[in-house]
Amino acid sequence: MSDSVRNTMYFAGVALLIIITGFVQSWNTALFILNFGLISAIMALGVNLQWGFAGLFNVGIMGFVALGGLATVLVSMPATPGAWQAGGASVIGALVLGAATVVAAVILMTKMKASKLRSFSVFGVLVVGFFVYRGLFDPAVGLIEEIDPAATGYLGGLGLPVLLAWPAGGLLAAAVAWLIGKTALGLRSDYLAIATLGISEIIIAVMKNEDWLGRGVKNVVGLPRPAPYEVDLQSNAAFIERANGLGFDAVTASTLWVKLIYAGLFTVVLVILFVMAQRALHSPWGRMMRAIRDNEFAAEAMGKNVTARHLQIFVLGSAVCGVAGAMMTTLDGQLTPGTYQPLRFTFLIWVMVIVGGSGNNLGSVLGGFLIWWLWVMVEPMGSVLMNFVTYGMADGYWLKDHLLESVAHMRLLTMGLVLLLVLRFSPRGLIPEK
Amino acid sequence: MIDFLNAFVALSNFVLIPAISYGAQLALGALGVTLIYGILRFSNFAHGDTMAFGAMCTILVTWLFQSWGISFGPLPTALLAMPFGILATMGLVLFTDRYVYKFYREQKAKPVILVIVSLGVMFILNGLVRFIIGPNDQRFSDGERFIISVREFKALSGLKEGLAFKTTQGITIVTAVIVVIALFWFLNRTRTGKSMRAYSDNEDLALLSGINPERVVMVTWLIVAALATIAGTLYGLDKSFKPFIFLQLLLPVFAAAIVGGLGSPLGAIAGGFTIAFSEVMITYAWKKVATYVVPESWAPDTLVQLLSTDYKFAVSFVILIIVLLFRPTGLFAGKSV
Q1: Which pLDDT score is estimated for B335?
Q2: Taking the model in full, what pTM does it have?
Q3: Is A431 a member of any domain?
Q4: A261, CA 20 to 30 Å: which among A164, A377, B136, B217?
Q5: Does residue A119 belong to the interface with chain B, where contact is any CB pair within 8 Å?
Q6: What residues have CB less than 8 Å from B229, skipping those under 6 apart?
Q7: Which of A137, A155, A173 is the last residue of a domain?
């Protein structure tokens, strides 16, 4: 069986799984799985760039995904009236000043000779800078958050079309990735892992607590959408007529139609990114990356700048995750920083890449769909299983209740098991690297 | 003078005591991470959830004891239950080692593969803990709540500031001291401990001198299981037990191990206290202490809090980055493989 036949069969299999879900459960669930599967596939592509191409172990994916979500708010929401006049300039000024302090400290550190004087001056710059920054920052933030805190209380965004947020999410994630990469790359792989884990937690902490930026845990709801609203469709006579002609009632048809529009948009993005990743993999640049991955020292001896290349691909991969994050927030229609969990947004993506086949773009896409399907379907399948297991037990027996209640936690168990089984028996994944 | 005493009491109450007990918990966790790193040579991401598993087993046995009416007097029943929790966790880690990690060890897989494998174990343990005990908060501490409460202290000393010393904090500190002394005695004085250190220093040389690697690995896992259970239970007693908290503890625990120097037990302890003290001191509002110490006219009108408590992750992270940039092997010169 040739590779292409096998790959086609894999994808047909996943498509079949989603279609069966449509028949057994509902088409809304099937399209939900498809949409998030598309987003997951893009995230997996990004991680595959870093891990599959270059062997970088990034466990901070959640942070970049969340940054993409933040970008959606900053780009697409309308600016809060009065917020910019109240404190916008001071906040920006304070942030610039904070950045300048760090830069000044770094410059002092590198330019001066190692001495007590250097330590004192670096320390002095940091302390003075910190207090000036807080002095400027805190009152401005207070002013912004006072503006109608129940509805806004944040700066708001630029009011641009929401589709622009997708590339913007990529840019924001890339910028942060560059900062992290500058400090953490070049350290050992374990240290990079811990550093990225830490930075993703910090990004989430910032998004939860900086209310002036994205309303924190009060969430931003009602983001603009690139698709029409279901309510509008349901009152549109032409739409109802067409829906009835196809044998759907208007409510179901409108929800399906909106999901299909999203699916179309996501597919376009996935195809573009996939083609680009594929071209990159087979270009001289991609070969160089794999050479670096397989033997850093040999590649360095051949005159390749390993640290610079690592930084490059770390930024690229994180940008892809940022795009996916922006798309996900657009689909949700709201930014809820409290829902970002590392198990769901970092480690699950890793399972996708490993199961699909690290180093192979097609494999990552397949892993994205397959693992996402499994993630959603484990719960209903688990409850069927548990009903079967507890069939013989009396109603109200504590073990029966406990088992039925615990079905929700089967997901993590299953994912861990899948990851371990694949690593053990098929470590190269479903579609191995050529 | 009284003002200084008041300031010192406030400082102890809000900074020193919490930081010491938190530091002890982190140090115990970091010791587990660092031992695994020294002997098995990978960063064990499942360690946080091993702690959760151990704490969970202890809680279940505690509930059993409580239902039987067994108690430990003024001390929490959980201390009686802890040995059983340790045994269960030992069984668990030996099981995962035998059926998961051993395969990769024999293959001489790259460390990063083992890290990914430990991610899988982390998923399973996390699921298992939630499956058995549920995702909610569990309180299981009983016995006396305070060794000395704020009111007692005020009556005793006549100071304006009160000092509360919780039983769980006292137990944490005492247990940590005992465990650390026992561990160092074991590592430095016994034959098995010495063979472990030899294996950690130089694997080939240790093998040549006839040390059985499987035995070393097994003993390491047993010690790590005990440390993880104790750390998890103490943390659960002191704060509260919630499965996902232990995933978040992973970052400060790793930071402590790396800051101290991965592979160095002494470093893990130093790292634990460094991280704990910085976290507490940077996120503490110093207003109260400052008003006692400085003249009245200088008294601050803000909270004098450097960072809000929500950013305590950022503190451990920044310390981690600083240490990595300036002393990549950590304070106590651990390994840099």
Answers
A1: 55
A2: 0.90
A3: no
A4: A377
A5: no
A6: B51, B54, B55, B57, B58, B82, B85, B86, B89
A7: A155
A101 with A49, same domain? no
Would the CB atoms of B115 and A424 count as touching at under 8 Å? no
Which residues of chain B are within 8 Å of residue A208 when distances are taken between CB atoms? 310
Q: What is the maximum alpha-carbon separation in chain B?
A: 72
Structural domain boundaries, residue B31: 2-326
- What is the complex's ipTM, to 2 decimals? 0.88
A205 neighbourhood in chain B, CB within 8 Å: 310-311, 313-314
**The pLDDT of residue A370:** 95
Which pair of structure tokens corresponds to residue A419?
């990851």
Residue A28 has pLDDT above 80, yes or no: yes
Q: Which positions ≥6 away from A36 have C-beta within 8 Å? A: A328, A331, A372, A376
Segment B290-327, tens digit of pLDDT: 778 777 777 676 777 777 777 887 888 888 888 877 78
Two tokens at A330?
A: 């657009």
Q: Are B291 and B300 in contact (CB under 8 A)?
A: yes
User: Would B336 be classed as within a structural domain?
Assistant: no
Residue A201: list chain B partners with CB under 8 A: 248, 251, 313, 317
Determine, for residues B310 and A190 on separate chains, whether the beta-carbon distance falls below 8 Å: no
Q: Chain B residues with CB inside 8 Å of A423's CB? A: 113, 116-117, 120
Residue B334 has pLDDT above 70, yes or no: no
Instruction: Please tell me whether residues A130 and A184 are part of one structural domain.
Output: no
The pair of three-digit structure tokens given for residue B37, joined into one six-digit string? 């790193």
By the 10 Å C-beta count (0-12 exposed, 13-18 middle, 19+ buried), A7 is classed as middle
Nearest CA in chain A to B259: A191
> Greatest CA separation found in chain A?
82
Tokens of A42: 């893009």
Question: How many angstroms separate the CA atoms of A421 and A427, rounded?
Answer: 9
User: Taking CB atoms and an 8 Å cut-off, how many pairs form between chains A and B?
Assistant: 124
* CB within 8 Å: A412 and B126: yes
Count of Cβ atoms closer than 10 Å to residue A12 Cβ = 10
Shared domain check, A39 and A107: no
Q: What confidence tier does B128 reach under pLDDT thresholds 50, 70, 90?
A: very high
Residue B166: its H or E element: strand B165-166
Domain enclosing residue A109, as ranges: 80-155
